């Protein structure tokens, strides 16, 4: 099968978001004029080491976007298998001003380097200062870039001096209504490495 996106695919569901998978889930927390907000974004990833930087994309001018534009900050919380139901609950279309932390019973704590809440029991949280909001092609598509200013690592996820994903089993987005749990890790050296 071949299709041009502008012509449509003819399938019952759009295959695009299932093709680029698995994708990490950025559980984005913000604080804006209308209060605290928490929402999952599956168009999320790290994009640079020094300084550390991340990105996520929002389809639609959502509460998270309005809050981070007002505050200039956001926090990325990593989603573990144990938090899948709570993460999903925060994706509901709540009325504007609803605190998803409270609605989904997600424990929160204050960040240290930015005025923003974070998921208290997340395996890792990345405190970020917004560096750029880019309007993408299409209607209400936005790319948010941020510099990481603080990193929280849950103690039980540190093993032998490494952040160990097998300690918490990260969640990934596949597409449609499908998710994956990382259960197996394969270590592989690059050619020429000792």
TrEMBL record:
GO molecular function per UniProt: FMN binding; oxidoreductase activity, acting on the CH-NH group of donors, NAD or NADP as acceptor
Domain Flavin reductase like: 20-165
SMART domains: Flavin_Reduct (SM00903)
Pfam families for the chain: Flavin_Reduct (PF01613)
InterPro entries with a match to the protein in the record: Flavin_Rdtase-like_dom (IPR002563), Split_barrel_FMN-bd (IPR012349)
Name under which the protein is recorded: Conserved protein of DIM6/NTAB family
Native source organism of the sequence: Cereibacter sphaeroides (strain ATCC 17023 / DSM 158 / JCM 6121 / CCUG 31486 / LMG 2827 / NBRC 12203 / NCIMB 8253 / ATH 2.4.1.)
